[in-house]
Amino acid sequence: MTSVSDGPSRVTISDIAERAGVSIGAVSFALNGRKGVSDKTRERVLRIADEMGWAPASAARSLAESRTETFGMVLARDPRNLGAESFYMQFLAGLETELAQRGYGLLLQVVPSREEELATLQKWRRTRRVDGVLLMDVTLDDPRVELLAQPNALPALVVGDPSVAGTLSCVWTDDASSMEEAVRYLAGLGHTAIARVGGLAHFAHTRIRDDAFTKQMSRLGLSPTVLRTDYTAAEGARATREALASSVAPTAFVYDNDIMAVAGLAVAMELGRRVPDEMSLIAWDDSVLCEHTFPRLTALSHDVVAFGSHVARRLFGVVDGAEPGHFKDSTPVLIPRASTAPAPGSA
Amino acid sequence: MTSVSDGPSRVTISDIAERAGVSIGAVSFALNGRKGVSDKTRERVLRIADEMGWAPASAARSLAESRTETFGMVLARDPRNLGAESFYMQFLAGLETELAQRGYGLLLQVVPSREEELATLQKWRRTRRVDGVLLMDVTLDDPRVELLAQPNALPALVVGDPSVAGTLSCVWTDDASSMEEAVRYLAGLGHTAIARVGGLAHFAHTRIRDDAFTKQMSRLGLSPTVLRTDYTAAEGARATREALASSVAPTAFVYDNDIMAVAGLAVAMELGRRVPDEMSLIAWDDSVLCEHTFPRLTALSHDVVAFGSHVARRLFGVVDGAEPGHFKDSTPVLIPRASTAPAPGSA
Fold it and tell me: Where is the HTH lacI-type domain (chains A, B) (predicted)?
């Protein structure tokens, strides 16, 4: 496992100048983001510096011989959607609990695209801005995983399933088991028409939940309905409304976050469907919000704050050179509250 | 206005060594956080360096001649409470929208106490970790305002009222006007027993809302009820429950955030009080959540994402040496939805 304190870098500015066929001065200008070289030259120099695994030597090292005391997290998300669900703030809060104890800060950057996400990670490595990074919202064949598995890459931890972590360490939750539990619970209450209101399809954890839902429904001889959303309350409401208007309306819904479940509950009330008598709802993840609706929401409960702290501890491990590993966090468990009941007519 | 690009620092390590009566080497060890000096010496050197306004010169400057491309935010809050309300994530999302456009990151640190908050700000200045800082949750006589008003301090922006910003720039919202509007609106609907469910008393903005509520109620010849909470859903529910159990139960409630209003709505439903026929509720700030409850919540609406972006732009201004100023953001406006109606018996 590569660590930032692994002795001096062997690649020098002269090496880069030679490979790029430009002067040492030009390389220096390019690496320090100063004027004096063309954009084209700057891009070539930065690319070559990246390829060669260059990191600033003396200047950076004399400023902070060892650590930056900062972890980085770059998110390719629409900033407006970040605020809607409670997951991220809970997760950040958990990270901060651990970081604060060690005097670390979190460098958070939200970017508009996956390309910018990669560029930011490369820039952070080049400028030694952080000691390590967290990878969130991992997709299948995620290019960040490949980038960070290279020698001289920033120490990194995947927050997600081992199946998409490659050779990197990861912290994960067994979402498949949780989903199976939710389906078994609803089927046990006599529900046969169950809908999953899922999040964005390109995220690996969405795919894992989709698969688990579909397989468990099939095992029980039931026909699965998967509704696609972008995690927003508006989409959760729309999906619920459309499903309830269909010829075989579901009598139970499993939502991929808390805010969509709350929105689904409001749609049910507006349409005069009694919850839980006529319709059951399950939220995932559980949150303070789920405990303060009426009726209170049955939820798959996972201590997201503790999860964030666990992730921070594992990233400290990675930075300190611990053996890579796949670390399982606690599995979300079903907390039955007042939003689930036997299916209508099944009693 | 002090700026990080204001030419070279005039205080040298020798100056500090002379004042502290120790060797230059000892100062260097202390400032760079290396072993080789006693804790006592380290503390004295750091204190003297702070007093003299020392900032690292050559090493830091040669690494990044101008900017760190990072803004800092340190919060003295219980991390578990940070995730409950949507304000912070919306605000962060707004900041990030602006920062992302300029390639800036946000260094976020959550600390357990006000003392640690001050220490973190001092450390950031000493190590040039950030280009500027935001002050949130400003209190009356806030020691951070005094610290950051000193020469050589980090460029800073207060997110809060001009009355507590001292000589620093600030971005603020006219909460007093918004509160007056909410009270007038409820009084216009015939409500006479109105309760404010307020946040933490030591925050300046809580005090401003308290005062505006009390004054406006008095102007209308009504007796004000202010209930104190810590912004959590549990406290919002408790305050609502207690108020409804009192001999003159309020018929209208104005909550200091969205999650407490949602919790209050659930309490009303549980107790069989019909909203809005028997009880009116107003949330502040408005959020996606308020639009997806049933009935939907009347709210004081403020675009918190846009507010965050505005704050980021003003901090760029401060760092660039703009004239200090008190910048007013848009005033939260009342959005009547389905949770407010004429007071019972007033029609």
Answer: 11-65
